[in-house]
């Protein structure tokens, strides 16, 4: 677990006068599930966009999968997977066509895509859905499929930007099982979420507020440090005094564990 | 390259699976050409007219026969008195009424002149003008024959009018260039702006941008299918106008197709520009329709001649591209002229393309920031 796949030093991103990321420094190790928490507007999405080569840092050093985010964003893009809050498969294409498309975009050979498709459909009990249009599938299935597509090409890192928004608790649970499995295969998972209970599933979490990282450790250590029973409580203890969050909206849906 | 081709294939799937897109791509061009060709005909053919003959002599008979055998008119009702005129015009059965004054023939022979009135339905001003012009032409032709047979009389200078390039003044000559322009604007600008903003709305654009595909490849992949399909549309329209309306391309077909391709490129870059500004599909549709469709229809000389408008409209029209393509197509297709006659318009369209592309790239970069 000591291979660094992401290392960020003094990252600053400014939009005009507004500083979205203020001097971030952190490291993420291979095979780790790294949770990125924070209220809306805390700068999570900006950071993810920089890490995935979509946007340039204003200053600081960002190395992802061994490549410099400022100078080699194209190399980074080849080595990562990405799934965003908004749903990202094409509703008017079938399951197989979507897989073929994304596999092709990431330069996979056709035979390999077919092989992986079969494997995937079997694993998810999707067999009969292969030739169905995405628009005909329930949201939970779509979400799981989107994740499978994001890791189809065995990326070094997969970025998940609020992947479980609007999904029912059971599907969220299954979704996290898939995340664990991917991490077991050695894929590093970088996930942002609103749901504090999900943060408990991460190996380490960082909490962002007003563009800065205000806490970074394992969930257990954080709970001990802040004398809290859950990550949710930790978050409230950190963020409430700063007047950043109203009392309720960040409370998770709470699934029983 | 393989990544790119897979992406283009996906775009074709989007198009072929969406019945609305298919209708816009192939239904509308065919319907518009046929509609403008057959229904919105501005030619006169067998228009029913009535006669109120107060003289009833040999000459009035001859003249009305001449009018009705021209092919432009046919004899409707024969009226007996003035009160009937209003009645038949109101019923809309008759397009015009011709009145011969009392003793028409005798006056013409003895005095050298006689009066004939043409009454038309002013609620259809274009039709009324057309009818009046046609009847006047037939009557002056009749005059000439009379003078010739009388041998004596004064020799008048008779104008002989010929319409170059479109001798029978067929309406198709006017609307085919217009429809080509309209279709290309509609398909290229509207459809590309919709298809790109759709990716934004679905969140798939985000995923594409994070992928190894370069932004240029994404945009090219989105517009390439539309480039190909609009080109097929052009060929379809040209075939239809040739086979159905007998309007061939008089000048160089190659030049014509090249000019159309250039215009397609221009419209595509406009579509891309719109998509960099519009956040939703609705906005994109609104911008393309208001920004391009209306100028294409109103300010391109397609339906309303620019020369007859107030000067200010001419200046406004000059900043919209459709006007130039119509000039180019008319020149090549109907007059049969070559590149020396259209280079100025060609350059202007190229300039538009470069400006739109430049602005798009600028906007795109800002968005990525």
Provide structural commentary.
The complex is a heterodimer of chains A (257) and B (369). Chain A has helices spanning 44-51, 73-78, 95-105, 110-123, 139-150, 169-184, 196-199, 219-226, 231-239, and strands at residues 4-15, 18-29, 33-38, 59-64, 67-68, 80-83, 157-161, 188-193, 204-209, 212-217. Chain A has a domain at 89-136 and 148-154. With 257 residues, chain A is of the alpha/beta class. Mean pLDDT of chain A is 85; it is low at 246-257. Chain B has 369 residues and is of the alpha/beta class. Chain B has 2 domains: 2-40 and 170-368, no CATH class; 47-150, abc type-2 transporter like domain (abc type-2 transporter like fold). Helices cover 67% and strands 7% of the residues of chain B. Chain B has helices spanning 2-17, 19-39, 58-68, 82-90, 104-111, 125-150, 172-202, 204-210, 215-243, 253-277, 281-298, 311-318, 322-335, 343-368, and strands at 47-53, 73-79, 96-100, 116-120. In chain B, strands 2-1-3-4 form a 4-stranded mixed sheet, sandwiched between helices. In chain B, helix 7 (172-202) crosses helix 13 and helix 10 packs antiparallel against helix 13 (322-335). Chain B is elongated. The relative contact order of chain B is 0.10. Chains A and B meet through helix 2, strand 6 and helix 3 of A and helix 1 and helix 8 of B.
């Amino acid at each position: 677990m000591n291979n660094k796949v992401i290392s960020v030093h003094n990252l600053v991103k400014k939009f005009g006068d507004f500083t979205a990321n203020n001097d971030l420094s952190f490291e993420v190790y291979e095979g780790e599930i790294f949770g990125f928490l924070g209220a809306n507007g805390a700068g999570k999405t900006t950071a993810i966009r920089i890490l995935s080569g979509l946007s340039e840092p204003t200053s600081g050093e960002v190395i992802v999968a061994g490549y410099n985010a400022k100078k080699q964003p194209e190399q980074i893009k080849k080595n990562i997977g990405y799934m965003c809050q908004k749903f990202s498969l094409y509703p008017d294409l079938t399951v197989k066509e979507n897989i073929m498309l994304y596999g092709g975009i990431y330069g996979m050979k056709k035979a390999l895509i077919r092989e992986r498709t079969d494997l995937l459909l079997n694993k998810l009990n999707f067999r009969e859905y292969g030739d169905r249009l995405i628009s005909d599938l329930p949201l939970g299935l779509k979400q799981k499929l989107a994740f499978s597509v994001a890791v189809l090409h065995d990326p070094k890192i997969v970025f998940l930007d609020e992947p479980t928004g609007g999904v029912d608790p059971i599907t969220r649970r299954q979704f996290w099982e898939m995340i664990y499995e991917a991490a077991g295969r050695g894929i590093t998972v970088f996930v942002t979420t609103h749901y504090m209970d999900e943060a408990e599933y991460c190996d380490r979490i960082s909490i962002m507020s007003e563009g800065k990282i205000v806490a970074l450790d394992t969930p257990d250590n954080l709970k001990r440090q802040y004398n809290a029973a859950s990550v949710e409580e930790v978050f409230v203890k950190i963020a409430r005094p700063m007047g950043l969050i109203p009392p309720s909206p960040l409370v998770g849906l709470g699934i029983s564990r | 390259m393989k990544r790119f081709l897979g992406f283009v294939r996906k775009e074709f799937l989007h198009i072929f699976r969406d019945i609305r897109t298919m209708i816009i791509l192939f239904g509308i061009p065919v319907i518009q050409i046929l509609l403008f060709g057959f229904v919105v005909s501005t030619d006169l053919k067998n228009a029913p007219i009535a006669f109120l003959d107060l003289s009833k002599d040999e000459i009035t008979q001859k003249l009305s026969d001449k009018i009705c055998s021209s092919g432009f008119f046919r004899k409707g009702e024969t009226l007996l008195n003035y009160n009937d005129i209003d009645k038949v015009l109101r019923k809309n059965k008759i397009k015009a009424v011709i009145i011969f004054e009392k003793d028409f023939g005798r006056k013409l022979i003895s005095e050298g002149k006689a009066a004939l009135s043409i009454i038309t339905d002013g609620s259809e001003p274009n039709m009324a003008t057309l009818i009046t012009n046609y009847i006047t032409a037939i009557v002056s032709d009749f005059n000439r024959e009379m003078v010739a047979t009388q041998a004596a009389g004064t020799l008048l200078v008779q104008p002989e009018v010929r319409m170059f390039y479109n001798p029978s003044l067929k309406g198709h000559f006017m609307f085919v260039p217009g429809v080509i322009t309209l279709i290309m604007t509609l398909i290229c600008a509207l459809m590309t702006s919709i298809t790109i903003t759709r990716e934004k709305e679905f969140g798939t654009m985000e995923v594409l941008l994070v992928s190894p595909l370069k932004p240029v490849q994404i945009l090219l992949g989105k517009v390439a299918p539309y480039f190909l399909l609009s080109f097929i549309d052009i060929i379809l329209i040209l075939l239809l106008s040739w086979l159905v309306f007998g309007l061939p391309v008089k000048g160089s077909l190659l030049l014509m197709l090249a000019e159309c391709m250039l215009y397609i490129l221009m419209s595509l870059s406009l579509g891309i520009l719109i998509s960099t500004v519009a956040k939703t599909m609705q906005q994109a549709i609104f911008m393309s329709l208001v920004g391009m469709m209306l100028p294409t229809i109103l300010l391109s000389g397609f339906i309303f001649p620019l020369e007859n408008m107030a000067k200010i409209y001419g200046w406004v029209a000059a900043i919209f591209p459709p006007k130039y393509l119509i000039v180019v197509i008319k020149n090549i297709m109907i007059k049969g002229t070559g590149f020396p006659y259209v280079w100025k318009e060609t350059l202007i369209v190229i300039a538009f393309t470069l400006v739109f592309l430049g602005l798009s790239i600028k906007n795109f970069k800002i968005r990525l920031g």
